[in-house]
């Protein structure tokens, strides 16, 4: 047992999907209260890394600790808030915004118990932080894309976690609504939350970011001070980063899926 | 009316109430997962279970429960593997179940008319012991579906999120599959295996025409299912002597009639909701005024749709959005 444990500690993590190594040799430590942006092109492995960090993708090798506890024995899931990519906001049966947000409270609820007043207060607070209090009784499918994304953030917030993982919260959200997202994240940061954000482009979230981690082809190529949206895609990024012996062929190949097989999964 | 005093009719009514409550309760979770036809698949597989019971002399209800639970678990495991051709694998299972059942019935020397009782339902021949089985199974299904509603809702809504929230997603998925299998066998004596999926899905489809939240959908579907089931049975019992009105199809057609009645209402409500959805609070840069409205004053009762637009209302007519501005109207 260590006295001070970081919320996230991943040491030489590797993830394989369908037998093919996707992430290799990833080291990532996130300190309490940090706001980290995981960036990179499509297919660079940034979403896979977040899924590995929350236990949705098993590690082939490496060690992952959350709040100092190895993932296998980690049970305090109420300390972790996960905001997946937006496609999961609606389902085959209507659900109100309040119900979706309330489902985030489950990590703190016992089976066959009604909601306590503390549960209700946390749900109301989560709705207020993302500015959706007035839409609580509406169906989730009636919200715009940006509002649905904020509802998913509120769902993660309802459990009052200390550590947030957000997977592409800005994807497909227009600029004015990205600003609404940025406001909600500013409030979370002010409350001392640790935030790991996957983003293609930061947009209005840029001022919040304290550290950028850039992925390319399943490896971390940069870890340091925040980078602009353009600098992230500089093909020579990371050359200066001391990562030991590393052969470079000189030519830069494209890691985005080729258009010849558009239906294959990335 | 004296028919309702007869013991077999009272047993049938009790069974109808319970099936009507249990089937839509599970059905809501199936529809939420976009697996509306899973009940149908389980129904086909259960045919083999019934035939096994008829062949071996065991109670067809229990063999159906066992085979349906096994089939539903297998379907859930196939679905979990997430193969792109998962629906084809499910189809193989459905037809295997149906063909196996018919073959086994023939082998046992039973005529298909005995099997037909289970395929199309025969609620009025239900025995006292069958009612008890139905009662217990249905109560278990309803208790689990309502008691674990928050967990089952979360898992069906967003599996990845539920897993990160610490829920045992696989366990809950299997639980829904098992509940579906149990309610299929509970309802098979009422509406029959070939129509059981209707009682699971149609009340849910009807309820969600008018509801906006999951909990009201679940509750309304259960009430609608029970009304259709009791109503259909009563209608068939009250049919004039000399005509044969089978209870199973009557229940299903009554449920469908409920959908046909509520659908236009739901469609109108959704249309209305789209019309009055607030406009983006962007005010046009220019100041374009409308032509004179000498014969018409926009207002709460003017008959035009009033839509919220920032701090005022826009009145929509003829492809225009008219915002009151002093004595005239602006084009917004």
Automatic annotation (TrEMBL), chain B:
<keyword id="KW-0813">Transport</keyword>
<feature type="transmembrane region" description="Helical">
    <location>
        <begin position="217"/>
        <end position="239"/>
    </location>
</feature>
<feature type="transmembrane region" description="Helical">
    <location>
        <begin position="174"/>
        <end position="205"/>
    </location>
</feature>
<keyword id="KW-0812">Transmembrane</keyword>
<keyword id="KW-1133">Transmembrane helix</keyword>
<dbReference type="Pfam" id="PF00950">
    <property type="entry name" value="ABC-3"/>
</dbReference>
<feature type="transmembrane region" description="Helical">
    <location>
        <begin position="251"/>
        <end position="269"/>
    </location>
</feature>
<protein>
    <submittedName>
        <fullName>Metal ABC transporter permease</fullName>
    </submittedName>
</protein>
<feature type="transmembrane region" description="Helical">
    <location>
        <begin position="90"/>
        <end position="110"/>
    </location>
</feature>
<dbReference type="InterPro" id="IPR001626">
    <property type="entry name" value="ABC_TroCD"/>
</dbReference>
<feature type="transmembrane region" description="Helical">
    <location>
        <begin position="131"/>
        <end position="154"/>
    </location>
</feature>
<dbReference type="InterPro" id="IPR037294">
    <property type="entry name" value="ABC_BtuC-like"/>
</dbReference>
<keyword id="KW-0472">Membrane</keyword>
<comment type="similarity">
    <text>Belongs to the ABC-3 integral membrane protein family.</text>
</comment>
